[in-house]
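Chain A, query sequence.
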Amino acid sequence: MLITVESQIRQLAHSYLRHGGKQNRKKRVDRLCNACKWIAKTFRITDIRQIGRRQVWEFYAASSTRKEKTLLEYFYSFELLWRLLQRAGEPPRPKNRLAPTNIVD
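Chain A, predicted structure.
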């Protein structure tokens, strides 16, 4: 039996959902499931441990039309994934569109 990416995330996040603010945590896990389903479909991934920085960057690139606040919420969801998988460091942050590119003195 093939276990889907979403069910893998929900199994790992079970104890995370049982503690703290319920609504925000549920939204964060739902957002992570949506992003990982897109990644799994695009890259033909069957295990969440196959998701890395490259896949997260591709997700941000495909989601470039979304608002910055939404992309930041996805970053927090990916941060949760990194914590659940006990990975070192943090996932890549989305690029800030409002940051000035050329600063003139």
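The helical segments are 5-12, 14-17, 22-43, 53-62, 68-84. The CA atoms of residues 6 and 33 lie 5 Å apart.
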